[in-house]
Task: structure prediction
Amino acid sequence: MTSLRGCRPGRSVHRPEDGLLVMELLFERPLAKGETIITEHTLSNSAPFPHATNYE
Result:
């Protein structure tokens, strides 16, 4: 994961045997209740990991 704008990587869990990567996105400051933020980041998958089709 590469941060491009509005966030930076935090803690992560990587389980290559399951094709799983979970990563926190940390913001420049805490958000207020109901506030939203726009971030831009890239995620590159490499063989032999499955092609990513679902981002949540």
Q: What stands out?
A: The radius of gyration is 13 Å. Residues 2-41 form one domain.
